[in-house]
């Protein structure tokens, strides 16, 4: 099968009035503004970026005593780093703080950061996330300067060293100022280090997508004087697949480069599928990032390197011949005659390739697309169709998401939920449900809202006729209090094994709910007898005050003995008030 696709627009067309700046990965721009001239209530930074590098700093603001705000591209995702106080190295502000994914795809992406005091809103390609800084990062605490493309804070100690941005920025706006326009005018407030240019004219590299297991790209080898070399970058989520095989003449050995368990495996075989003397390189290469592979054949040595790391080499018994006419086949099935889905387990690369070079000559994919070079099936030339199926994360209740080219999976281990998206609770919603299952009294996990957001928690189920759900707290032991008064009151805090939300959900499902607070006293007044001011109380879940204790009634201002009239001294409504020396 052949699919021809019309070439997409390679050059981005800028709307009138747009300004661009190109950073080469070593340069940066610092903008210094006059402090408090306009005293903005909030700072607003907006820009667009385009890059093929997965790491780099977009902008940075430095504050007093090492505070700062940094927006950084890490592994193709945007992270907002807020360093505060004496924290020397900033850490991503918690898991899930990343926005976007696969942003190193040479397409324009928009960023909007609004920042007011502790509140930060970050919007990437229209998707917003709210952050809360630990300290107050208002414009009063931040230096009146901002650097783009890297961290440039002259006169300040460099708190951390990160990669500079390598790519283009467009329409950089800081609180209404057009920064690129100011840089072009060479105003003194703008300081540029390194080399920048005011156009984004780098050649766009053309990726190619291997859409199905049967997708392949066959390219003729270029006979070299001294061995041969092949290099390319690949990007995939699949942990296994056939990346490259040589297409030899009858009788010669076949070179096989496969991905297996996320590592590269290089082998030399005599018959298809039978790898002899293979070596592995790299690990976790199915992480959706671009990885650079280079393969060299020299004499009887066959070597592979991944991402510039040390080479893994095969020493063959005989020299590995690279005769003219040898072709390279990327992806596809073995044997090559099998259909769109590979028959043998070895085969089927799904992902993207770019920057393919054979003997140091970059392969022109346009010629391939036009049928003038090699041949292919089921490819999408000129774009990479990779998707991040874990963004947004459809795994519920904290399940970990992983993916292949075609699907995502949730690892629900230790979440208390199961199912494809960790949606179904492993636990019953109440003790009653456990009783229906015939379970005896004991400690159970209950999940009062089932698949809802509340996590399951442990509770004691007392399987009487109508079962009781007993929720414990850490204050059930008697605490002896001596000599508390208005100036130094005694305060007891109870911590339940369930959160307030979990307690409310449990109470909401119950027909009857009770708790008992016992207060034993001797020579103690519960109320000031003169004006009835309570001297002891407890605080309910809505923060309301209650002055009665176990067995009494709200607002009775009496102990149980006062309610039923059995107090030792009928003049008092409580035995504690009566001045007796007994509990
Ligand atoms: C962030 O967004 C929310 C909701 O749109 C808005 O109420 C809030 O004012 C924004 N905060 C800032 C600092 O812009
Ligand atoms: C193109 O495919 C044909 C078979 O479909 C094959 O014989 C030929 O060698 C291929 N060309 C290259 C350059 O690989
Ligand atoms: C269970 O309930 C019964 C009857 O109310 C009670 O006697 C017993 O103490 C309870 N058991 C526990 C462990 O709470
Ligand atoms: C219960 O635990 C909380 C939080 O750890 C603590 O503040 C409180 O003092 C504890 N209460 C008792 C009565 O031990």
UniProtKB/TrEMBL annotation:
The keyword Disulfide bond applies. GO terms for cellular component: membrane. CDD domains: EGF_CA, LamG. Keywords: Disulfide bond, EGF-like domain, Membrane, Repeat, Signal, Transmembrane, Transmembrane helix. Its main location: membrane. PROSITE patterns: EGF_3, FIBRINOGEN_C_2, LAM_G_DOMAIN. Residues 1-18 form the signal peptide. Residues 422-473 form the Fibrinogen C-terminal domain. It is found in: Membrane. Residues 20-200, 206-384 form the Laminin G domain. It comes from the Eukaryota. Gene3D superfamilies: 2.60.120.1000, 2.60.120.200, Laminin (2.10.25.10). Residues 386-423 form the EGF-like domain. This is Uncharacterized protein. It comes from Diceros bicornis minor. The lineage of its organism: Eukaryota, Metazoa, Chordata, Craniata, Vertebrata.
């Amino acid at each position: 099968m052949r699919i021809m696709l019309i070439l997409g627009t390679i050059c981005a067309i800028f709307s009138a009035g747009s300004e661009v700046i190109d950073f080469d990965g070593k340069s940066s721009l610092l903008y210094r503004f006059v402090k408090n001239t306009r005293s903005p209530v909030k700072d607003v930074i907006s820009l667009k970026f385009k890059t093929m590098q997965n790491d780099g700093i977009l902008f940075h603001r430095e504050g007093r005593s090492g505070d700062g705000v940094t927006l950084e591209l890490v592994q193709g995702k945007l992270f907002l780093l807020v360093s505060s106080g004496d924290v020397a190295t900033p850490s991503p502000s918690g898991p899930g703080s990343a926005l976007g994914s696969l942003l190193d795809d040479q397409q324009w992406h928009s960023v909007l950061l609004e920042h007011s005091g502790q509140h930060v809103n970050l919007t990437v390609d229209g998707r917003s996330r709210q952050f809360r800084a630990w300290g107050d990062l208002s414009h009063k605490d931040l230096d009146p300067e901002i650097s783009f493309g890297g961290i440039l804070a002259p006169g300040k100690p460099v708190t951390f060293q990160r990669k500079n941005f390598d790519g283009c920025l467009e329409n950089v706006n800081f609180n209404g100022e057009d920064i690129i326009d100011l840089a072009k005018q060479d105003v003194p407030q703008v300081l540029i280090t390194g080399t920048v240019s005011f156009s984004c004219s780098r050649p766009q590299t053309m990726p190619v997508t291997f859409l199905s297991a049967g997708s392949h790209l066959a390219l003729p080898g270029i006979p070299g004087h001294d061995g041969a070399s092949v290099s390319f970058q690949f990007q995939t989520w699949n942990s296994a697949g056939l990346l490259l095989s040589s297409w030899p003449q009858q009788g010669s050995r076949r070179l096989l480069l496969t991905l297996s368990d996320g590592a590269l495996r290089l082998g030399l075989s005599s018959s298809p599928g039978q790898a002899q003397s293979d070596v592995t390189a790299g690990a976790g290469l199915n992480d959706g990032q671009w990885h650079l592979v280079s393969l060299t054949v020299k004499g009887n040595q066959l070597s592979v390197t991944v991402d510039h790391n040390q080479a893994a080499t095969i020493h063959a018994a005989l020299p590995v011949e690279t005769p003219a006419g040898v072709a390279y086949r990327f992806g596809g099935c073995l044997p090559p005659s099998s259909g769109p889905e590979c028959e043998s387990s070895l085969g089927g690369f799904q992902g993207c390739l770019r920057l393919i070079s054979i003997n140091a000559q970059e392969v022109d994919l346009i010629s391939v697309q036009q049928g003038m070079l090699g041949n292919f099936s089921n490819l999408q030339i000129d774009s990479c169709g990779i998707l991040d199926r874990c963004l947004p994360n459809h795994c519920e209740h904290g399940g970990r998401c992983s993916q292949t080219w075609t699907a995502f999976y949730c690892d629900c281990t230790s979440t208390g939920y199961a199912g494809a998206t960790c949606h179904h609770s492993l636990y019953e919603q109440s003790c009653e449900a456990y009783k229906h299952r015939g379970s005896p009294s004991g400690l159970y996990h209950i999940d009062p809202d089932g698949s809802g957001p509340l996590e399951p928690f442990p509770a004691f189920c007392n399987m009487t006729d109508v079962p009781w759900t007993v929720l414990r707290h850490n204050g059930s032991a008697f605490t002896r209090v001596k000599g508390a008064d208005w100036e130094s009151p005694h305060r007891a805090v109870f911590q339940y094994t369930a959160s307030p939300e979990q307690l409310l959900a449990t109470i909401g499902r119950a027909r009857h709910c009770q708790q008992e607070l016992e207060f034993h006293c001797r020579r103690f007044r519960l109320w000031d007898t003169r004006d009835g001011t309570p001297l002891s109380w407890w605080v309910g879940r809505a923060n309301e005050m209650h002055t009665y204790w176990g067995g009494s009634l709200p607002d009775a201002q009496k102990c149980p003995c006062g309610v039923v009239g059995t107090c030792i001294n009928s003049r008092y409504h409580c035995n504690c008030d009566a001045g007796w020396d007994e509990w």
